[in-house]
Each structure stands twice: as C-alpha cells, then as structure tokens.
Amino acid sequence: SSIDLNACYDLVMQLVSQSGEIVAARNSQRKTVQIKSHPTDFVTETDQQIEKLLIDGIRKKFPDHKFIGEEESSEGKKVQLTEAPTWIIDPIDGTMNFVHSFPHSAISIALLVNKVTEIGIVYNPVLEQKFTARRGQGAFYNGKRIHVSDETDITKALIMIEFGTNRESDKVKVVMENLNLLVRKCHGMRCLGGAVLNICMVALGGAECAFDFGAHAWDYAASEFIVREAGGVTLDPSGGNFDIMSRRLLVANNMEMANQLVAEIVQYYPSPRDDE
Ligand code: IPD
C-alpha cells in the first residue's frame, strides 16, 4: 500500500508543536517522577501524556501504522520493528533535564517504512530548537539547511558524551575510561544530558561526533537520521553496521573521523537489547 509522506509530515509537525507547548509550559514546574530501569531513569506524567497525544493523533489519521514508544515499551512490551509504517517515539528525551528545569529536553519522532527512515523530527521546545529531515532532502534547523562539520582530525574535534542512566560500576567504569582517553585526545567533550540532542549537535556542525551505550531505539531513530541527512555517518561503535535495536551508536561528521573514534573507545554492550 502506498503512503502519503507529505500528509504524514504535515500531521506530525502539527502534533509535535502541540506537544512542545505542553513541555515548554511545564519545564519550570515541579514534577512528580516514577523510577524505571534504574534509580536515575525517570518518567513523568508529561512523558506519558505526550506519547499518548502523538500516538492518538497519528492513529486517528493512519489507523494501520505501528508505534514503538519509549513509555509504552518500558511498560514491558516487546519492541518489534517490521516493514509496516512505524513511528518511533521518545516523548521527552532528557527527562532528567526536564525534571530539573535544565533547558535541554526534546521530543523525538521518526517514521520508518520498510525499515527505512523517511521522516525525523527533534524539537527542544524550551529553547525552540527544531531539527527536521526527510529522506533525500537534507536536514534543517529551524527551517535552515544544516551540514556536518568538515573537520577530519580527531585532535581538533568536539565529542559528545553521555553518562547514561545506568550507574552500575561496570558501566560507569567504561564511561570514565572513555572520558579519560578522549579528553586528552580532542579539543573538548560535551554533554547535554540527553542522547537525542547530543546527536543533533553533530548534524548541526557544532560537534564532530557522538557515541552512546545504553540509550534506546527511540533515542537514536530521528537523531541519527538527521545526522545522515546533514551529510554525516552512523555506525556501530565497533565500526560495524548500525543496529537500531542494539542500544549502541556512533555518529560522526565523516568516515575519517568515525574511524579515529572507533580506534579509541572502550566498548560496552548493554543488555537487554530493545528487541528481546
Ligand atoms: C535517556 C537520555 C540519557 C541517556 C539514556 C536515555 P530519556 O533518555 O537520553 O541521556 O543516557 O540512556 O535513556 O529517558 O530521558 O528519554
């Protein structure tokens, strides 16, 4: 069956704006949190409300579309990516930031058809930063075309890093080892507190690379696509092919940069994967 991607894009842009108004209005308020996989992994009622708003809004127009949503999945549902049109949703990435009123949280949504990404949108409504991409049409920041940086030397790179919500010692050890190795190698390390916005900094040309162990398909789907549409590359952190369900990702402005990062970093394999 054919799919009207323009109609999908228009609808989702409208739903994302609506969602953004709610997130922005509540950013400075006090929130009640529920704990998920780890004591520092949170969900708020706003996460759940935004996910529902997006899913209900899309389902009304496209009843046969499928959804992989952060909050749905964390209720124990299995994630299965099929050929069907599938929306992968993180209603609020950087929930910890949102809880603290630190102004870097984002709504992330991507549409995959036949497992190929067609649409990616990331919106930080607090700072009004909107990243958008359609397959083959480039990436945009607040409507302006964006490109990755053209740096090829890792010693002159800014590298995005995230500490993650899993603070068990084996995971923290890998994070710290990588921080320790890379900070002496590159211009600087940066951390926005959310995988999605970190990855988008590579698309914007503000950083050269980002890597992540432990985030999920919903953190990667829209953001890695936006990087590719901005001219960058997505790999597994070992240098192999990216696997969206593996909870492992490396994005870079180009292959030269990616290869230098792959050669440096200590690997971590989170479990379980998103699809098992
Ligand atoms: C989390 C953030 C965090 C990353 C975690 C993610 P959430 O997403 O991106 O920076 O380290 O792995 O799960 O829970 O805020 O949507």
TrEMBL record:
<feature type="binding site">
    <location>
        <position position="70"/>
    </location>
    <ligand>
        <name>Mg(2+) 1</name>
    </ligand>
</feature>
<dbReference type="GO" id="GO:0006021">
    <property type="term" value="P:inositol biosynthetic process"/>
</dbReference>
<dbReference type="InterPro" id="IPR033942">
    <property type="entry name" value="IMPase"/>
</dbReference>
<comment type="pathway">
    <text>Polyol metabolism; myo-inositol biosynthesis; myo-inositol from D-glucose 6-phosphate: step 2/2.</text>
</comment>
<dbReference type="GO" id="GO:0007165">
    <property type="term" value="P:signal transduction"/>
</dbReference>
<dbReference type="GO" id="GO:0046872">
    <property type="term" value="F:metal ion binding"/>
</dbReference>
<keyword id="KW-0460">Magnesium</keyword>
<dbReference type="InterPro" id="IPR000760">
    <property type="entry name" value="Inositol_monophosphatase-like"/>
</dbReference>
<feature type="binding site">
    <location>
        <position position="92"/>
    </location>
    <ligand>
        <name>Mg(2+) 1</name>
    </ligand>
</feature>
<dbReference type="InterPro" id="IPR020583">
    <property type="entry name" value="Inositol_monoP_metal-BS"/>
</dbReference>
<protein>
    <recommendedName>
        <fullName>Inositol-1-monophosphatase</fullName>
        <ecNumber>3.1.3.25</ecNumber>
    </recommendedName>
</protein>
<dbReference type="InterPro" id="IPR020550">
    <property type="entry name" value="Inositol_monophosphatase_CS"/>
</dbReference>
<dbReference type="GO" id="GO:0008934">
    <property type="term" value="F:inositol monophosphate 1-phosphatase activity"/>
</dbReference>
<dbReference type="InterPro" id="IPR020552">
    <property type="entry name" value="Inositol_monoPase_Li-sen"/>
</dbReference>
<keyword id="KW-0479">Metal-binding</keyword>
<comment type="similarity">
    <text>Belongs to the inositol monophosphatase superfamily.</text>
</comment>
<dbReference type="GO" id="GO:0046854">
    <property type="term" value="P:phosphatidylinositol phosphate biosynthetic process"/>
</dbReference>
<feature type="binding site">
    <location>
        <position position="93"/>
    </location>
    <ligand>
        <name>Mg(2+) 1</name>
    </ligand>
</feature>
<feature type="binding site">
    <location>
        <position position="219"/>
    </location>
    <ligand>
        <name>Mg(2+) 1</name>
    </ligand>
</feature>
<dbReference type="Pfam" id="PF00459">
    <property type="entry name" value="Inositol_P"/>
</dbReference>
<feature type="binding site">
    <location>
        <position position="90"/>
    </location>
    <ligand>
        <name>Mg(2+) 2</name>
    </ligand>
</feature>
<keyword id="KW-0378">Hydrolase</keyword>
